[in-house]
Amino acid sequence: MLEIRDLHASVADKPILKGLNLTVNPGEVHAIMGPNGSGKSTLANVLSGRDNYEITGGEALFEGNSLAEMEPEERAQAGLFLAFQYPVEIPGVSNMEFLKAALESVRGAQGKEEWDSVTLLRQARAACKQVNLDASFLKRGVNEGFSGGEKKRNEIMQMMLMEPKLALLDETDSGLDIDALQVVAKGVNSLRSPERGIVLVTHYQRLLDYIVPDFVHVLYNGQIIKSGGKELALELEQKGYGWLTGEEESA
Amino acid sequence: MSQAELDKLIRSNYEAGFTTQVDTETLPPGLSEDVIRFLSAKKGEPEWMLEWRLDSYRKWQEMPSPSWAHLKHPPIDFNEVSYYSKPKSLDDAPKSLDEVDPELLATYEKLGIPLHEQEMLAGVAVDVVFDSSSVFTTFKEKLAEAGVIFCSISEAIKEHPELVKKYLGSVVPQGDNFYAALNSAVFSDGSFVYIPKGVRCPMELSTYFRINEANTGQFERTLIIADEGSYVSYLEGCTAPQRDENQLHAAVVELVALPGAEIKYSTVQNWYPGDENGKGGIYNFVTKRGVAHDNSKISWTQVETGSAITWKYPSVILRGDNSIGEFYSVALTRHMQQADTGTKMIHLGKNTKSTIISKGISASRSQNAYRGLVRISPRADNARNFTQCDSLLLGDQCGAHTFPYIESKNPTATIEHEATTSKVSDDQMFLCRQRGIDPEKAVSMIVNGFCKEVFKELPMEFAVEAGKLLEVSLEGAVG
Question: Which one of A10, A105, B248, B295 is separated from B317 by 20 to 30 angstroms, measured CA to CA?
């Protein structure tokens, strides 16, 4: 479903991705790991279409369509979801209002049945429960005054409702304590399905104790320099990235 | 988001910009004592009213036009304005809606204000003012049962002279300021409300102002008296056709809240704002003020999206002990619009309390200023004020300004002031778009969220309308 071939991308004219290749099939969970500054978050932002992240070469196809030609909202409507590393606050816009607008657009575009307010509320409450968020969060402004952990759980809650075809999680584990990490992992695991692809971008192996990936890739200097199974993550945990990059770095 | 995208987003059509073809009797432009005599005679006013007008006119002639506001406009030639325009069909006041000119009814229909009572929002009585005249007031009889008087000010001058004489100019004196003096001299029509002692007005009252005729000024005068222990919620709405010339609107609104009374006054102002190059639009110079007696409360809520120029400071004089004044405002400016708006809270009584929440949204090349005065007099022990002014900028060519004035002459006063300025951030837009929400909807959602604290103060039906109005104002395709 995701086919990335020789992808080059720049941020503010600075080349970050330099010939990246990656294929994600439905049902697979991929972990992208790598040292700071290797281009992990850039990859997530390029795929979801953030301003100033420009594809300069190669291609990224989502279900055969070039992502470069799609607006960010069109990518979302096609079923691509990004769980943000730093979810932003939107004061005064309630989570519920936000979800309603998002789901109307995405479900509509995918020809899914429209949820009336009662169904939406029921679904949203159930999703909140799964990630240990009190239902009162639905009435609060989007991320407004949420703690770091609450913001991340809110992202996963949205993801569960949006039912994406491809979920990108950008450092979702950063800043989470072990309890919150388990909650988030539980949420992500509940979404694993033969139709859905999941890409976890992470710096640390510990997330992968809870969400066990099918494939692990090491991203360095804008390229994937090594791919393997879940055991690669454990190896990285022990040895750091230095043995692959030729640099001294402690993970 | 780039400036070009934003510009596109906020370029939109003014939906109320059409003109109605009706035969009118319109005075040629110009202002003199003769014009005032003519106008007063035309309205069949008593002698005392004419004298009051002439007195105001003489005061006005000696006053300079104010220049302190953060506004730029060419000098206004008051002799180029026509001070009276009335649809001929209203010469004999219509007794029922069947007698109202269908063109006029259609106009209001088109504006979303059906006048047939059975089609109206349940529980809202409307007085509609077209150019210089009141067209019709609905639900009059039902209100009369409760003892509520709701009619045009012209009618009140004839039918209830004792109330008008007692209260007209009691809150905003004739010579209060340049535009108030002008209004006092030439005011054409407007609404009059009297709520008797202890009566809770059974429905929302509302006045809808429409400027139609070219080169005509609208000078309406509204007077609301809430007698002891009574309650009323009142809403005013305004629109005007799209024209290349600027048109003048100089209104005066006076509120009197007698002991224990409560007045809630809401405005949704959508005068024509001019085009994106600043051509045309209404010059809106308005004086709105209320006097709050012991234990009474006056609350102003305004949503200002129109006018080329807005000069408006709905104020409360907290005369009585334990009285409360509130001001909730959303002012949206775009294109070349200029708004200088805010409030004055004058604390005279003990234990008086005021709250000011102002939300300014500036887009394109517009200028949006909050100007507010909080004055605590020496005898206003334990007075409290809370002020919050937030500005939201869309793009980088607009301006937001805050001019708070605080004068405290009593050491027991508590005054809090908070101010913020923010932008609709790229991150917020991206979060919305990543969730499948198109940029147009995203901006309007973010802006509506920013205004939420004010919208929740509006009567429910109008909160919805105000939200939609912001949407319309920000509407436009995004490339």
Answer: B248
- Locate tokens 């509520």: which residue? B148
Asked whether the predicted pLDDT for residue B182 surpasses 50, the reply is yes
Contacts of residue B151, Cβ cutoff 8 Å, sequence gap at least 6:
B127, B134, B137, B140, B159, B191, B192
* Domain residue ranges in chain A: 2-245
CB A106 within 8 A of CB B436: yes
Nearest residue to A101 via CA among A123, A119, A120: A120
Q: Does A70 touch chain B (CB under 8 A)?
A: no
CB atoms within 10 A of CB B8: 16
Residue recorded with tokens 């000024």:
B217
Strands (E), A25-104: 29-33, 53-62, 65-66, 80-83, 90-94
pLDDT at B477: 24
Task: Print pLDDT tens along chain A (251 aa).
Answer: 999 999 999 998 899 999 999 999 999 999 999 988 899 999 999 999 998 899 999 999 999 999 999 999 999 999 999 999 999 999 999 999 999 999 999 999 999 999 999 999 999 999 999 999 999 999 999 999 999 999 999 999 999 999 999 999 999 888 888 888 999 999 999 999 999 999 999 988 889 999 999 999 999 999 999 999 999 988 888 888 888 877 654 44
Question: pTM for the whole thing?
Answer: 0.80
**Mean residue pLDDT across chain B:** 83
- Distance from B277 to chain A by nearest Cα, in Å? 29
CA distance A184 to chain B (A): 19
Q: What is the pLDDT of residues B62-99, one digit of tens each?
A: 998 888 878 788 888 888 887 877 666 555 555 566 66
b/e sequence A115-147, b meaning 16+ C-beta within 10 Å: beeeebbeebeebbebbbbeeebbebbbbeebe
pLDDT at B348: 97
Interface ipTM: 0.94
Mutate to test the interface with A, among B391, B418, B434 (most CBs of A within 10 A): B434
> From B445, which residue of chain A is nearest by alpha-carbon distance?
A93
| Residues B337, B304: Cα–Cα separation, whole Å | 11
- Token representation of residue B91: 């010469």
By CA distance, what is A44's nearest residue in B? B434
Give phi and psi for B222, each to the nearest 5.
-120, 135
pLDDT at B141 over 80: no
CA distance A174 to chain B (A): 19
Q: Which DSSP string do the residues of B76-137 spell out, in sequence order? A: P-TTSSB--EEEGGGSS--SSGGGS-HHHHHHHHHTT---SGGGSPTTEEEEEEETTEEEEE
Distance (Å, whole) CA B9 – CA B3:
10
The CATH homologous superfamily for domain A2-245 is: P-loop containing nucleotide triphosphate hydrolases (3.40.50.300)
Residues in chain B with CB shorter than 8 Å from the CB of A72 are 430, 433-434
Q: What is the count of residue pairs from A and B with beta carbons less than 8 Å apart? A: 79
Query: How far apart, in Å, are the Cα atoms of B261 and each of A95, B146, B295, B317?
Result: 38, 16, 7, 14
The band of B122, judged by pLDDT with boundaries at 50, 70 and 90, is very low
Other C-beta atoms closer than 10 Å to the C-beta of A91 total 18
Is B432–A98 a contact, with Cβ atoms under 8 angstroms apart? yes
